[in-house]
Structures are given as structure tokens and as C-alpha cells.
Amino acid sequence: MLGVGVAVAESGEDGRGDVCAAERALQVVIDSGHTDRAPRAAFNLGVLREDRGDFVGAELAYQLVIDSGHVDQAPKAAVNLGVLREGRGDFAGAERALQLAIDSGHVDMAPMAAVNLGVFCEDQDGAERVYGLAIDSGHADQAPKAAVNLGVLRAGKGDLAGAELAYQLAIDSGHPDMAPMAAVNLGVLHEGMGDFAGAERAYQLAIDSGHADQAPKAAVNLGILREGREDYAGAERAYQLVIDSGHADQAPQAGVNLGVLCHGRADFAGAELAFQLVIDSGHADMAPKAAFNLGVLREDQGDLAGAERAYQLAIDSGHPAVASAAREVMLQLPSGDDLPGATDASCRRAL
Prior knowledge:
Elements: H1 16-32, H2 37-51, H3 55-68, H4 73-87, H5 91-104, H6 109-120, H7 124-137, H8 142-156, H9 160-173, H10 178-192, H11 196-209, H12 214-228, H13 232-245, H14 250-264, H15 268-281, H16 286-300, H17 304-316, H18 322-332
């Protein structure tokens, strides 16, 4: 008997011949009616058809698997069918398919289906219910993911205590991705409640995780929090952590924040260094902002030629907001005949 995925070598343009041959081979296995191989082949056929954009054909294949009642393949197919229908805007059909997977009680697919269903479920009570199912399953990946989603859901409807409990569940799971994400979310939650000490602790948890994305994000948030509380030294340390991380997005953001902070504290050398680092990063959004802010910094010090060079960088970036702001400022720059240092940069706001 042919194995799943066995294909005759009939290569056509762009491999279409191989795809057709693979479909025929899978269909042979499906037609065999084998209790194990036929459902596997139908599942693979569904994936193959979905990959090439034949969504109707994919639905038919996944339904074959579901109808087979195979203990593993049927729940997998139900999840795929649910995701496929959701992507096509058939939310009622998606819910029916995902509920099948949930009802199967499959150790992996049921929690996955519950998380997927919770994401697009318009009934908030229903979403809470299915997230609770995923959490109660104790699944190593899906339970922490459901806890984070449940926290976001509860926070959105004002149930702050419930959101905190959900985030804490994800943190306690120690999941390498979800625990740091939950810690950042918990920090934001505490900050919004005015519990700044709790927010600092949560952000520090995310920072200590060393997560490539969440740790720098938490450090930026911590820097902003400390800056707002006038802990400028602590804010500088937090921003520097992010800069040292080299994160593609967060490091430039931290660099701009650090530059503005240093400028406000009259640390002009530190501000210039921070802004220049961001400019050198070439970040599409932050580099133009840093160039504008560097112009403000230099103008504030009476270095009009240096300010003009910085503003020109912002203009040349073509950034939709910053470039136009820099053009407007350039028109207002004092000429060389004006009194030295007599600028109004102190009235100009950094971006």
C-alpha cells in the first residue's frame, strides 16, 4: 500500500506536477479505507490544498478526517478546519469545528482549540469559559497562553483583580514566552492602578527572564515609569539596559527616551550620544525622531549649523510626521546675522 505523501515524479512548471501527483497518491490511500492511514492521508491532503489556496477542497478533506473519528487525526483536522473557516470569515463554522476538537478531550488539540475559540468569540463570558478550559487542562503551552488572553480580556472589561489573577497564573507557569509577556502586562495593569511598586516588580520579572522581546519592552516601560516618578538615575539604567540589548525596535525607542531625559537634565553630551546611536540604527520611525531631537539639542546650545545638519537628516528621512516638522523648524532657524545663541529652542518640544 502507498504510504502517506508518496508522489510520482511528474514535475511540471513551478512544481505543479509534483503537487498533483502528491494529491493523487494521497487519494489512493484515502480510498483504501485504512483505519489509520486513510485519515492521515486526508489530513495531509487538507494541508496540501490549503497551502495552494484550494480552501473548499481543504474543507472537504478535513471533514473526511473528522468523519473518520480517528482519535488523533480528527481533532487535528477540526482545529485546522476551525482556523481555516475563521480566516475566511465563517465564524459560526469555525466555532462548530473548534467545539468538536474541544469535545474530543484530546490532550493537545482540545486546549489549542479552546484558545483559538476564545480569541474570536464575541461572547466575553463564552471566551472566559473556553480560556478556563484551556487553563484547567494544564497544557504546558496552551494553558499559559489562555491565561494571558484571559488576563487581557478581563482587563479590557475592567475586572482588574481577575486580570491580575490570570496574569499571575501565566507567570507562575514559568513558560518561556508567556510568563514574561504576562509580567509585562501585569506591570502595565499595576501602573494603571497606581501601584507603581507592583509595576516595578512585574517589569523586573520580565527583565530578569532575559526574553529577547519582552525583557527590552519591560525595561522601556520601567524607564518611563521611573522617569515619571523623577527617579532619573533609575530611568537611565533601565533605558541603558534596552540599548545594550540591541533590540531592533526597543533599543532605538530607549535611545530616544534616554536622549530626551539627558537633554532635560542638561547632560548635553549624553543626549547627543544617545540620539546619534538611534540615528545610526537607521530605524524607520525612531531615527528621524532622534535626528529632530538632536537638532533641538544643538539649537538649544546655539550650534545652529549642527542643528541644521540634524534637521536636514530628519527631512531627508521622508518620515510623514517628522520630516514636515523639521522643515517647519528649519524655516524658523535664526540666520547667522542674528545674535549668537539667541534662539527659541527652549520653546521647541522634542518628539
